[in-house]
């Protein structure tokens, strides 16, 4: 997937399809889990009524409709030389 397909503008057009004359507004923009990521709550007005969706920014700088995976504690075992 190229960078343009991960932009917030591209995803708003793809998922909300505001159409000609439709208005788009960012309802809320903020951080999730401290500084782990950002989200944008976007609303589009269409002839059939308003549509809204949350978009989440991932570590690679792209936006998606699903939140980034949470970092979890992990353990690694190393083989010690004998």
What is the total number of structural domains? 1
How far is it from the N-terminal to the C-terminal residue, by CA? 46 Å
Instruction: Identify low-pLDDT runs.
Output: none
Overall mean pLDDT score? 81
How many helical elements?
1
| Shape field | elongated
Can you list the strand order of the major beta sheet? 1-2-3-4
Radius of gyration equals 18 Å
Number of strands: 4
> How much of the sequence is in beta strands?
35-45%
Tell me the structural class: mainly beta
Word description of this protein:
The chain is mainly beta and about 80 residues long. The chain has one domain. It contains 1 helix and 4 strands. It has one helix spanning about 10-15, and strands at about 25-30, 35-45, 50-55, 65. The chain has a 4-stranded antiparallel β-sheet with strand order 1-2-3-4, covered by helices on one side. A hairpin with a 2-residue loop joins strand 2 (about 35-45) and strand 3 (about 50-55). The radius of gyration is 18 Å and the shape is elongated.
